[in-house]
From TrEMBL:
<dbReference type="Pfam" id="PF00514">
    <property type="entry name" value="Arm"/>
</dbReference>
<feature type="region of interest" description="Disordered">
    <location>
        <begin position="1237"/>
        <end position="1270"/>
    </location>
</feature>
<keyword id="KW-0547">Nucleotide-binding</keyword>
<feature type="domain" description="CS">
    <location>
        <begin position="1131"/>
        <end position="1218"/>
    </location>
</feature>
<feature type="compositionally biased region" description="Low complexity">
    <location>
        <begin position="1047"/>
        <end position="1059"/>
    </location>
</feature>
<feature type="compositionally biased region" description="Polar residues">
    <location>
        <begin position="996"/>
        <end position="1023"/>
    </location>
</feature>
<dbReference type="GO" id="GO:0005524">
    <property type="term" value="F:ATP binding"/>
</dbReference>
<dbReference type="InterPro" id="IPR007052">
    <property type="entry name" value="CS_dom"/>
</dbReference>
<feature type="region of interest" description="Disordered">
    <location>
        <begin position="1283"/>
        <end position="1316"/>
    </location>
</feature>
<feature type="region of interest" description="Disordered">
    <location>
        <begin position="415"/>
        <end position="435"/>
    </location>
</feature>
<feature type="repeat" description="ARM">
    <location>
        <begin position="787"/>
        <end position="830"/>
    </location>
</feature>
<dbReference type="InterPro" id="IPR035437">
    <property type="entry name" value="SNase_OB-fold_sf"/>
</dbReference>
<keyword id="KW-0347">Helicase</keyword>
<keyword id="KW-0378">Hydrolase</keyword>
<feature type="compositionally biased region" description="Polar residues">
    <location>
        <begin position="961"/>
        <end position="987"/>
    </location>
</feature>
<feature type="repeat" description="ARM">
    <location>
        <begin position="745"/>
        <end position="788"/>
    </location>
</feature>
<dbReference type="GO" id="GO:0016787">
    <property type="term" value="F:hydrolase activity"/>
</dbReference>
Length: 1316
């Protein structure tokens, strides 16, 4: 009408035009026109991109777009006119309009009609009935055209298809293709053998027997067994096994399986690649689908292909997935497969279309031969519903039969007498409203808490109805239906209505509760449990469609807790509960059901669980710990937590007191008498203490989890104290119990209790239990996540109790050991500052020792060491070393000081500059009785540089440096101590340098020598008699390979030449010591990041764990003794097997099952290994025979051991692994990886050997396996052949005791090489 009544300036654009014509059209379009002469552009889809028009205000579609992309391109022409204001006023006057012309001829474009209708609905427009009928007509025409398509699987399985608009399958019944197949049962009962399971309610089966409704057998030809026999007989002849040359989809062929059995298959799809062609085939007699190569298909003769398919498709009726899911879960399908696969089942025929059978009440029967009767073993539908893998679908069969009406003649259907009636039409109305939803009486149900008044009154919604509730809410808020709904007349209490909720302005189903006045009333929202006061005139009458779903707000209360004594539930308790449950999916377990107190149907006493974390959170327990209630002790609650109480059989089978801890916890939960509660808690403590070896029995009988439960429910301090100590003893030396405490919520409970203000005695025991739980690696992470580290650091800052502080320090030490994250968190939470202050002010030696140990652990991180510098921790430690007289404190202070000054020149300078500290350390190093204190003092002195007191000594002539083989000047004034110094002190200080952590690359290879006594004159001998002898470690009988032997002769001549100098020999000793001292002071360890398990170098974000030396262990630390018991954590060497190749050395640390990354440090002359595994602290500190390249060393975990690969600096054989010749009982030979390493200098003696090995006598050797008869000596590394130390070597498959052979290679080991 618009075009007929007006004349418009029209432009034309299409693909056949030249580009200059399109440019002219675009220019004309962009030219400014007056409002009454706006142009109209007629164009095709192909030129939309070329014109790039964006300012159109109206688009008229003369045809349907062939794709969504083209349709969006049309609408994009108006993109500049799109309104950004979506308010209702702007919707009435849109900035642009799109017209779609639809006529009867458009039914040939069904996809376009469906998309148009969807678009109109999404944009809020009204879909007319005419358009709806036209769309349905087009959809039906499209379905009729899909004759070759199979019937929709969802429609067959559930009676409806949720994706019907996009589904490519057929959704209507066609008489020409869906008539029941020949021989298919259409009514009665059937017995089938399930051959393949597709999902939970779809199977393929062979029909074994058929009865009518009167249980009379219907004759039926059995063609399965003859068919199988004919196929086997036919293909038993080789000439019949002819491959198919040309394969097409739909061909019937034969294939052979792994059991040499032949099957008929139909080709459903063919895929070709460059190398081979593959086909997807369907086994017509079994029902399964498989993909195989085309060349495996065999020709099938016509007489075998003519036999009907033996497998029919069977659907179990009246079930569907839970939560209205569109598909079955893998769990449901696997459960069904275990029930029905290969079983003979019986069922009632509900419908038959084509070769598909629908059955109900599919059961597996057992025949009782003695009484000639049968029983049902499994009812498949009932089993699926019972285990909550499916829900009932009563409309399934009725929907399918309705789809067949008027198309296929169906026989009479006799539904089961127990089957629920199918729903037809609307069931509820305003006069007959629906009931409130109910919770299942047993088991757990998923719920959401929708409203909370207080713990005694809350409302929950079942997740089962969540999608239906969303659909209902959308229906209630439909603008058209709301506008058409009349206003509620005669407002009175109890009237059902539809009311708006003021907080979100949305409409919900409601009930009038109370009339405030003539204009206002209070309403209760039936689906959410909230209440509001609104205007009575805003209430509307509900229509029948919104009354079909049960009311969703289920009244409930926490039945396991009560208000605090002599109090009522408060608003704060309700707010706390709401914070715990808001927008969280919970599990509800019903304790009991009673009448409602607020006009609803029932009131449920429930227990709520939050299972979203690793451990279950019990909501009532959280409320008790927050101080908002006490445990009720009701019988139903006790039976819920401790079902063993009412099970005499369980009590009889667990007579051991260690297995009855849960029964004592049940009594503890029931009673409210404080004295009785304390007595029961002490009984639990006594049982745990007296049964230290029955931790596993306590865990398996739920003793550990029961104690964890009661820790959260009890509020008496004395009870908490006993339970905490009991829990601590349960986890000692039991990693499994540590895991149980975490998963049972005990770890969370302890962390929460630490934040409460208890007496010091209770806090001490809570921390003591947490200290033992912190030995588990996963618990370390959990404690940090649960806020335990923050609570401990707060206690460290606030507590005044020495026992509490002592336990806090021990617990923090366990938490940060080998855990960089926790170490950093402690510093961030103020724990580092607090422990520094504690070390400054503490007067208790026991507490001071633990505080120093914690400070040492924190010093592992470089950032923490920098913070300690700001806290002046070095000065504090120096003061402790100067003034404290306790050996234990002194040892720990020295160890901590070594850790604090590591790689910190500023901290070293602070020690050197502090008056009197160096003298004290020197005095301790030389004269203290404790070897640990002396050793630590020597290590510290090695880091300070030259001694504080030096005298200038001018030698008679330039000295010879015997450490680099060159003649050089040695400044005796600065490079070595004065001969007037106490040489006992110097010799003892340098007698045994500690190279376990820092080794000089040169010093590890050079041995020192001095003139023999025969080369000295009388004066020199006298001088030696007066001065203490130098340590034997500084002497060698032979020069090393790195020192020229001429220098040693020069040394003797020099000594004879300077016989007039009375202190010359002492000066030479001082030169040697000063050289070591200076090089020990200036050396830096060549440390690199520890490689990952794959051997590749991996740089951590902080390399402190890689370059920090392993913490030294005193005898006191080797066994950690708990404050309340005698539990010890063993520290031992792991068993190590080693082997070597020409360029590498391989160590196998025998720790089977180790999964966590150990702490491994490689230095040029040493190896450090440490890990905590199965309650044992495994440590390996090994000085190597020769230098290695740390940057090329690596380690990896294999599951059975840890492989350490060391790269030698100089290729060649090592006669032994360690620097010293000491026998190590934990060290053995790895014969599997050993390779004989030829030496380039086999004729030359090893300069590091202290004595020559005499030549071996000649032995006659019997030839074996073509080997030469001459003796071949194999240099094996040093090993101990005693039966007690290396017995594992004799058990090896690669070791033979006969003839002293190794691995049966024919090479003999001479006894004199053993132990070299």
């Amino acid at each position: 009408m618009l075009l007929k009544g007006y004349c418009h300036h029209t432009l034309l654009a299409h693909a056949d035009q030249h580009q200059y014509e399109l440019d002219r059209v675009k220019k004309e379009w962009t030219t400014h026109h007056s409002r009454d002469s706006l142009p109209v552009l007629v164009m095709t889809d192909t030129v939309i991109q070329d014109l790039h028009i964006r300012d159109a205000t109206c688009v008229i579609h003369y045809s349907f777009a062939l794709s969504p992309l083209k349709f969006s391109g049309r609408l994009a022409c108006m993109s500049n006119s799109f309104s950004k204001d979506v308010s209702k006023e702007k919707k009435k006057t849109p900035g642009c309009v799109s017209y779609i012309l639809v006529t009867e001829t458009c039914t040939t474009f069904p996809v376009g009609l469906q998309e148009i209708m969807t678009l109109v609905r999404r944009s809020g427009g009204h879909v007319s009935q005419e358009l709806l009928d036209m769309c349905n007509k087009a959809w039906l025409a499209k379905q009729v055209g899909r004759v070759d398509n199979s019937f929709c699987h969802s429609l067959k399985a559930f009676g409806h298809c949720a994706e019907q608009a996009r589904c490519k399958a057929r959704h209507v019944v066609l008489p020409e293709v869906d008539q029941p197949g020949e021989g298919m049962p259409t009514a009665g009962y059937v017995k089938v053998l399930v051959t393949h399971v597709v999902d939970a309610n779809c199977y393929y089966a062979r029909i074994l027997k058929h009865w009518d409704w009167d249980r009379k057998v219907v004759p039926r030809e059995n063609t399965c067994l003859p068919l199988m026999a004919d196929i086997g007989l036919y293909y038993s002849r080789q000439e019949n096994k002819v491959p198919v040359l040309t394969v097409q989809v739909g061909d019937l062929c034969a294939v052979r399986d792994m059991q040499n059995t032949f099957h008929r298959v139909r080709v459903t799809m063919i895929t070709a690649t460059d190398f081979t062609s593959r086909a997807r085939v369907f086994y017509v007699d079994e029902g399964k689908t498989e993909e195989l190569e085309v060349k495996k298909l065999l020709k099938l003769p016509e007489h075998l292909a003519a036999v009907p398919a033996q497998a029919v498709e069977v659907f179990l009726c009246a079930v569907c997935p839970i939560d209205q899911d569109k598909q079955w879960t893998d769990k449901a399908s696997a459960f069904t497969h275990a029930l029905v696969s290969g079983k003979e089942l019986e069922g009632r025929v509900a419908l038959c279309l084509g070769h598909t059978l629908w059955v109900e009440s599919l059961v597996e029967r057992n025949v009782l031969q003695g009484i000639k009767a049968t029983t049902n073993k499994h009812n498949i539908r009932r089993e699926l519903v019972h285990v909550c893998l499916a829900e009932k679908n009563p409309d399934h069969v009725s929907l399918l039969r309705q789809a067949c009406d008027g198309k296929i003649a169906l026989p009479e259907y006799k539904p089961s007498s127990k089957a629920p009636p199918a729903k037809h039409g609307l069931k509820y109305s305003t006069s007959s409203p629906p009931p409130t939803a109910t919770l299942p009486a047993s088991g757990f149900d998923e719920v959401y808490v929708s409203a909370v008044e207080h713990p005694g009154l809350l409302y929950v919604q079942r997740k089962h109805y969540s999608r239906k509730l969303e659909a209902l809410t959308a229906e209630v808020n439909n603008e058209e239906k709301l506008a058409a709904a009349p206003v509620l007349q005669q407002v009175a209490p109890g009237r059902l209505c539809v009311a708006v909720f003021p907080e979100d302005n949305r409409w919900y189903r409601a009930r009038v509760q109370l009339l405030q006045d003539e204009e206002m009333c209070e309403v209760f929202y039936l689906d959410h449990g909230d209440s509001a006061v609104i205007s009575s005139s805003s209430l509307k009458e509900p229509w029948e469609e919104v009354m079909q779903l049960p009311f969703q707000a289920i009244e409930a209360c926490l039945g396991s807790i009560l208000p605090l004594p002599d109090q009522q539930w408060t608003e704060e308790s309700g707010d706390e509960l709401w914070d715990m449950v808001f927008e969280k999916m919970l599990f509800a377990q019903v304790l009991s059901v009673g009448p409602s107190e607020h006009g609803n149907d029932n009131r449920y006493k429930v227990e709520l669980y939050n299972t979203s974390a690793e451990y279950d959170i019990i909501i009532s327990q959280e409320m008790v710990m927050q101080g908002h209630g006490v445990v009720s002790g009701s019988p139903e609650f006790v039976n819920l937590l401790f079902p063993e109480v009412d099970d005499p059989a369980w009590i009889e089978s667990h007579p051991d007191p260690a297995e009855q801890i849960c029964l004592l916890c049940a009594q503890l939960c029931q009673t409210s008498d404080p004295e009785l509660m304390v007595e029961l808690a002490k009984q639990i403590y006594s049982i745990v203490i007296n049964n230290p070896t029955k931790h596993e029995a306590m865990r398996e009988s739920r003793g550990v989890s029961s104690v964890c439960l009661m820790l959260g429910y009890c509020t008496e301090p004395a009870v908490l104290e006993s339970l905490a100590v009991s829990l601590g003893y349960m986890v000692i030396n039991s990693q499994a119990n540590c895991e149980e405490v975490r998963t049972a919520g005990g770890l969370r409970t302890l962390c929460k209790l630490l934040k409460k203000d208890y007496e010091p005695e209770v806090q001490k025991q809570l921390i003591w239990a947490l200290k033992h739980l912190a030995l588990n690696e996963r618990n370390k992470e959990a404690i940090q996540e649960l806020g335990g580290l923050t609570a401990l650091c707060q206690l460290l800052a606030d507590s005044k109790s020495p026992q509490v502080l002592e336990n806090v320090c021990c617990c923090l030490s366990n938490l940060i050991t080998e855990n960089k994250t926790n170490c950093s968190v402690v510093a961030e939470c103020g724990g580092l500052h607090s422990v520094c202050q504690l070390v400054k002010s503490c007067a208790n030696n026991v507490l001071l020792e633990h505080a120093l140990q914690l400070l040492q652990q924190l010093a592992v991180l470089s950032a923490n060491r920098a913070a300690m510098t700001e806290e002046r921790s070095v000065e504090t430690l120096c003061e402790r070393i100067q003034n404290n007289r306790s050996d234990k404190v002194l040892v720990q202070a020295l160890r901590t000081l070594k850790a604090v000054i590591f790689r910190s020149e500023e901290n070293v300078a602070a020690i050197v500059n502090r008056s009197g500290v160096r003298e004290v350390i020197e005095r301790y190093a030389s004269s203290h009785q404790s070897p640990d204190i002396s050793r630590h003092c020597k290590d510290l002195l090695s880091k300070f540089g030259s001694p504080s007191k030096t005298n200038t000594v001018t030698p008679a002539k330039p000295s010879i440096n015997h450490f680099n083989g060159r003649q050089s000047e040695v400044s005796t004034s600065n490079s070595f101590p004065s001969p007037d110094l106490n040489f006992n002190q110097l010799a003892s200080g340098m007698k045994k340098p500690n190279f376990s952590h820092h080794s000089s690359p040169v010093q590890s290879r050079i041995s020192m020598s001095r003139p023999s006594s025969c080369a000295l004159n009388s004066n020199q001998s006298a001088s030696l008699m007066k001065k203490p002898m130098i340590s034997p470690q500084l002497q060698t009988k032979r020069p090393t390979s790195g020192v020229d032997s001429k220098n040693f002769s020069n040394l003797s001549n020099s000594a004879s030449h300077n016989s007039a100098t009375p202190y010359h020999i002492s000066t030479r000793k001082a030169q040697v010591l000063a050289h070591h001292w200076e090089r020990h002071k200036t050396r830096r360890p060549n440390l690199e990041p520890v490689p990952e398990g794959n051997g590749e170098m991996h740089q951590e974000e902080d390399d402190d764990y890689d370059d920090m030396p392993p913490l030294e262990t005193t005898e006191d630390e080797k066994c950690q003794v708990s404050t309340n018991g005698d539990h010890k954590i063993q520290s031992r060497h792991p068993k190590v097997l080693w082997s070597q190749q020409k360029e590498t050395v391989t160590l196998s640390v025998q720790l089977r099952g180790l999964s966590q990354k150990p702490n491994v440090t490689f230095v040029p002359t040493a190896l450090h290994f440490r890990t905590f595994f199965k309650g044992t602290d495994y440590r390996l500190n090994l000085d190597l025979y020769d230098k290695v390249q740390p940057d090329r060393c690596s380690f990896r975990l294999t599951g059975s051991d840890v492989i350490l690969t060391l790269r030698k600096e100089k290729p060649g054989p090592w006669p032994r692994l360690s620097r010293t010749k000491a026998k190590h009982p934990w060290l053995g030979i790895d014969f599997d990886r050993w390779e004989d390493v030829p030496s380039d200098t086999e004729s030359e003696p090893d300069p590091r050997q202290t004595k020559n090995v005499p030549p071996l006598p000649q032995h006659k050797h019997k030839e074996r396996g073509g080997l030469p008869s001459t003796l071949c000596n194999v240099m094996l590394p040093e090993m101990d052949i005693s039966s007690d130390t290396n017995s594992h070597l004799h058990d090896s498959d690669h070791y033979s005791d006969s003839d002293g052979e190794v691995g049966g290679s024919g090479y003999k080991i001479d006894p004199r090489f053993i132990g070299m």
